[in-house]
Structure formats: structure tokens, C-alpha cells
What does this fold into?
Amino acid sequence: MELRHLRYFCAVAENQGFSRTARALHISQSAISEQISSLEKELDVPLLIRGHPKVALTPHGEIFLREAKKVLRDADHAVEMARRSVRGEIGTLTIGFFTGGTGTFVPAMIRSFRNQYPGVRISLVDMVPTVQSEALMNGTIDVAFTRPLDPPFHQHLRSELLYLDPLIAVLPKDHRLAKGPVDIRDLAGERFVLCARETSSAVFDKIISLCSEAGFSPDIVTTSRVWSSVVMLVQAGEGIALLPSNLQQRGARDLAFCQLKSAAAGIGLMMAWHPNRLGPIQKAFLDLVRKNRPRSK
It folds into this structure.
């Protein structure tokens, strides 16, 4: 039994005859009659009472018609769902992000994608950049908003720069440089509080590089795995910090968040994915982000 047998049977029942059905389907009357006879033979059940000018359903045919319509509806639904899947309209999308690193842009993109593709179930996973790369490799997440990729992940994954997030100096309010902007060279004698390299190697390495270019190696007194703890340590008088601007706490009255004079003092927010796991949903999301990415930050 094939779906066409069911479609022909339903059409004959609705049109109450072979000739009207033949005209509607643009198929010869004899071909339709042969298909229905074949269906009855396969079922070993009489479905139609063939009369003139109309064809009627047997009691068995009425039951079969109800069930056949259900099958056809399910088949049509399956086809539509498959086509929607190809278009990226249904399915799942798991997005990795890290606290404090996405600003307002990433939440806006996720909200916009939800509105455009309500059939896609989105899952958000908070993980530090180093873990995001591993998650992309093993398929735990589909897309990551992360920092520049470290070796060897940059050889296997793909990424695009969304914008540069400026680094800022986090200083006690009474610090001599608190009015800013700050020249990195003036921080040479300061005690530094940094976020641990295993949390964000890109930011850690960027700070070390900026200090090196300014002619000194930072005096790192302590590190923390959590950005908020870095700010707290500055508040406690442990030292000063350099953080991405997204992490500044405007309500912290005892701290000053100062711009850096160096034009190179920025860290990229990247969109990353695995090229071998790039399906229609992922492509649709990447295209949305590309279309709306900020020109500058």
C-alpha cells in the first residue's frame, strides 16, 4: 500500500465518483479505478459501492476513509516538518556564552532569533571561553560567543570577530590616576589583580602583552577565576585591574573605571562554531548575527 492509493481513495470518496476524480487529478478514470481495486484486493475489504452516477462507501469504507485521512494528514505534516527543518525553522540550537562578555548585543540577537524562528528550541550555556572551545569540538554547543581561539582549537574551529571590547583600568576612587584616561606605562609600579588564565587566556595574555609593549612586566599579586572577585579585590585594596569594559560596575562608588590611552587595548568578542556541524539552524543564526553585528564598539 502506498500513499497514492490512500489519496486516490479519499479523492473518489469526496467526489463520489471516478470521472470527477479523474478530472480533478488529471489522471485517467481507468487508472484510478485500477488503483482502488488494487487497494481493496490488498486489504481484502470492499470499500466502495460502485453505482451510477455516484459511488458510495461501504461501512468498512467509511471507517477506512477516516483513518486514511489521518494518515495523509500525518504524512503531510511530516513533509512540512522536514522542509521546515531544512530551512532552519525547527530543531534545537545550543549557544555558549560567558558572563560579562556579551554586553547587550548577544542577548538582543538571541531574542531576535527566537522571534523569527519560534519553532527552534534555544538552550543557553554559561561557560568560560576555554571550555567553550572544547564544547564546540565535542558538539555540546552549536555556537559560541567567546574570546579569540587558542591553539590548537583555532585550526579546527571557525570564528568571526563581532567587535572589540575596550580594556579599562579598574582603580580605587582615590588613586592618583583615577580621573583617567590612563597611560599603561603609568601602571608600571602597580600591583595587579588579574582574572586567572584558565578562565580567559585571551584577556590574560592581552594584558601581559600590553604591559610588555609598555616596557614592564606586571606585578601580579593574585588572580581569581571570577571577574566579580577581581573587582572585589580591587575594592579591598589588593591592587588594580584591567578588565573588558562590559564588566565595569557603574554602581561601585569606591572605584574608578578609566579608559586606556592605548588604541591596541581591546579584546575581541568572537562568534565561533565547528564547520562540520553547521546545519540550517546554525547557518540561520550566524547569518542573523552577521547582518546585525556592530560596526564599532
